[in-house]
Each structure stands twice: as structure tokens, then as C-alpha cells.
Design a protein that fits this description.
Number of strands: 15
Strand order of the largest sheet: 2-1-4-5-6-7
CATH class of the domain at 1-112 and 300-365: Alpha Beta
Structural class: alpha/beta
Helix content: 40-55%
Largest sheet: 6 strands, antiparallel
Radius of gyration: 22 Å
Bound molecules: adenosine-5'-triphosphate, magnesium ion
Number of helices: 13
CATH architecture of the domain at 1-112 and 300-365: 3-Layer(aba) Sandwich
């Protein structure tokens, strides 16, 4: 049991100079006008659980203008303390119970989250890299072995690519040493990704059908090559050395994998309407939450940023009902009119954000 997030403190993160929040065990709403700091609260939580911000841009950009650094602290039930500090011009640092960690990603898995924000639309509209990022982040949160394979794979890929870029001739033997590590770790990544998407697909289909009755969502893993084991990987890397030398980069491997997301039978990226794309991403995230819960035996924290915009009334109502079902901690942001309805009624905690100041609505406790 990792427990839920009991207390969150944010310092000098964007507009939030100093904010403290005690999320409910169920649904917490964060309400405010545009630009007041709602998303920043979720960004802080995301940073704690994954070592990464929610939106694109550098970490320096998230530090309040005029300040040297920012800090986020979280306390989980059971007393586990997580913290991340950002410092201008220096490395971000992660702490577990006050102890500095080697990498910010070392916090991954301590407080699993599934997040939906505007950035996540890239899951459907973006490049294969966006979909790989989804797979890597979500699977890492439930599988330390995956995170290890990923770290090893990336490190060796980087070194092999550096060799391929060199002016001098690099021997096959030297390339093969990196390929060996990439083959072992890469096979682990492929198998875990295949398994994940196989389990995800029916859950995503059902989630989509609930939000948009009569339409179907199809999700499928698309490995860049056929191989799924280390043996196949070794052969493939060796066979393609010549081409890799010419192109000066590793052209094949799990770092080129993709995932198909089809809405109503066609590629969602090319043909989906905005609402369909949004619904598809939400359905994938809903399914991800269910899958993570099944794997870990407890619900991950769900962060929903501005989830109601761009959805029709029926989808909104359906989503509001789903977000307020018992089971797991949910933190939802929005502007006031969007949140009217069942989500607001079932919320256990309500916070207002105004000009970077976060206050609890005392009427609701
Ligand atoms: N480094 C920074 N220092 C100070 N303020 C910043 C910094 N980065 C962003 N901001 C400000 O913080 C606010 C962004 O906050 P945030 O994105 O959390 O707002 P929001 O309430 O989610 O708004 P919306 O409803 O439009 O999504 C903006 O007003 C922005 O100008
Ligand atoms: Mg926002």
C-alpha cells in the first residue's frame, strides 16, 4: 500500500508563491479563472510522481520569475515524504523521506498517477515519440523492471549513436557491445509494451463506448520490427549496421515503435474531429487507470486538467459521473461553469485559485 496524497506544498512554482493543499481521498476540485494557477497545482503533483512537469518547456520556465528555485513536497498516508526541487541553471533534485535520490525518475512508482491535460492530446495528434512516451511513463510506474530496461536501452542507444556519428571507422565488435545491451533491454521493452497494449485495448474500447455510444476505439501496438526477443534483436541490429553507418544513426529498434489509435475505424490523427481526439485520449487514460489499478492492486492518483472543455453535454455528464465514482483519488481542475453538475456535487474538497493564491472552500470542509 503506497497510500494517497494527504498533503501537498508548492513553493515558487509559476504563479504559486506558497500553496498548501490537503486533497480528499475521493474527488477534489480546483476551480478558478483562466491563468490563475490551477494547472500548476497538477504540474507540481506530476513532478513529484514522475520527476517530470506536465507541460512542455524547460523546468527553468516553471520556476517563479525572479526566484532562484522552486520546491514541491508531498506527504502520503503512512508518512512517506516526497519532494522535488528545481534550481535555475542546475539539476533538479528528488528526495524520498528527506534522502536525496540519484535521479528524479527514482521517485517513479512511489505515487503512481494517470494525468490528462491539454498536452496529452498529442497521444492522438502527435508523433510516434509521443505515444512511446505514454507507454514508457505508464508502464514504468507499475514495473521497476521496465524502468530499468528503459534506462539501459536509452544509455546504450545514445552511445551507439555517438559512435555512428564519429568520423573514424568504428569496428563491428565495438558496435556489437552496445547492440548486446540494447537487444536484452529492448526485448524486455517490447514484451512489456505488447502485453500492456493487449490488456489496454479492450478497456479503452469500453471506456470510449461509454463516452460516445455507437463509436469504436481501436488501440494497437506497432513495433517497428517483428522481433520480440533478444535473439531477433541481435540479428536485426547486426544486419542493419551498414545502413546505420550510412545514416549515422540507429535506424531500428524499440525507440522507433508506435501505437495505432483508430477512432470509428480510421486513424484518429488524420481524420478525428477535435472532440473525437479528445474523447479517445480520455478513454485511453481511463483504461490506463483501470489497468494500473489491476496491476498494482490499488488506484493510481488521477489528475484531470480542464477535461470538460471541448466535450458535448453527454460526454461531460458521463465523464463527471465516472470521475465521481468511488475508488481512488481524483483531482480535477476547471473554470466554474464547466464544473457545474454532478462533479461539483460529489466533490469532497474544493479549492479556489485566484492570482496564484489557493484557498479551501470552508463550506465544503
Ligand atoms: N515562471 C513563471 N513565473 C511566474 N508566473 C508564471 C510563470 N510561468 C507561468 N506563469 C503564470 O502562471 C499562470 C499559469 O498558471 P496555470 O497554467 O496554472 O493557470 P490555469 O489556472 O491552469 O489557467 P487556465 O484556466 O487558463 O488553464 C499564468 O498566469 C502565467 O502567466
Ligand atoms: Mg490550466
Amino acid at each position: 500500500m503506497t497510500g494517497y496524497l494527504e498533503r501537498l506544498v508548492l513553493r515558487n512554482l509559476r504563479r504559486l508563491t506558497e500553496a498548501e493543499i490537503s486533497p480528499a481521498q475521493g474527488l477534489t476540485l480546483i476551480v478558478g479563472k483562466n491563468g490563475q494557477g490551477k494547472t500548476t497545482v497538477l504540474e507540481g503533483i506530476h513532478l513529484l510522481s514522475t520527476g517530470r512537469l506536465l507541460r512542455a518547456g524547460t523546468e527553468n520556465d516553471a520556476i517563479q520569475l525572479g526566484q532562484d528555485g522552486a520546491r514541491v513536497e508531498g506527504t502520503l498516508t503512512g508518512g512517506t515524504e516526497l519532494a522535488v526541487t528545481l534550481r535555475r541553471g542546475s539539476r533538479k533534485m528528488a528526495y524520498l523521506n528527506g534522502l536525496g535520490q540519484r535521479r528524479a525518475s527514482d521517485l517513479i512508482g512511489r505515487m503512481p498517477v494517470v494525468a490528462f491535460s491539454a498536452q496529452d492530446l498529442s497521444l492522438v495528434t502527435g508523433e510516434p515519440a509521443d505515444r512511446r512516451m505514454y507507454l514508457d511513463l505508464e508502464i514504468s510506474q507499475v514495473s521497476p523492471a521496465y524502468l530499468r530496461d528503459l534506462t539501459v536501452y536509452k544509455k546504450n542507444l545514445k552511445e551507439r549513436n555517438a559512435l555512428l556519428r564519429q568520423e573514424e571507422w568504428v569496428s563491428d565488435d565495438l558496435l556489437a557491445t552496445y547492440e548486446e545491451a540494447m537487444a536484452e533491454a529492448g526485448a524486455g521493452l517490447r514484451q512489456a509494451r505488447a502485453q500492456w497494449v493487449t490488456e489496454l485495448a479492450p478497456l479503452a474500447r469500453d471506456a470510449y463506448a461509454t463516452l460516445a455510444p455507437g463509436e469504436t476505439l481501436h488501440v494497437e501496438y506497432l513495433p517497428h520490427e517483428e522481433w520480440m526477443d533478444a535473439e531477433g534483436a541481435r540479428e536485426d541490429y547486426a544486419l542493419n549496421r551498414r545502413r546505420d553507418r550510412e545514416r549515422r544513426i540507429s535506424t531500428r529498434g524499440p525507440h522507433r515503435d508506435d501505437m495505432a489509435i483508430e477512432v470509428a475505424g480510421v486513424d484518429g490523427r488524420k481524420y478525428g474531429s477535435q472532440g473525437q481526439q479528445r474523447t479517445a485520449v480520455i478513454a485511453v487514460k481511463m483504461a490506463t487507470r483501470a489497468l494500473m489499478a489491476a496491476r498494482r492492486g490499488e488506484w493510481p492518483l488521477l489528475l484531470l486538467d480542464d477535461v470538460f472543455s471541448d466535450l458535448d453535454a453527454q460526454r461531460r455528464a458521463c465523464l463527471a459521473e465516472w470521475a465521481s465514482q468511488p475508488g481512488g483519488q481524483v483531482i480535477l481542475t476547471g473554470t466554474e461553469p464547466e464544473l457545474a453538475g454532478s462533479a461539483l456535487i460529489s466533490a469532497q474538497a474544493l479549492y479556489w485559485v485566484d492570482s496564484g493564491v489557493v484557498t479551501r472552500d470552508e463550506i465544503r470542509g
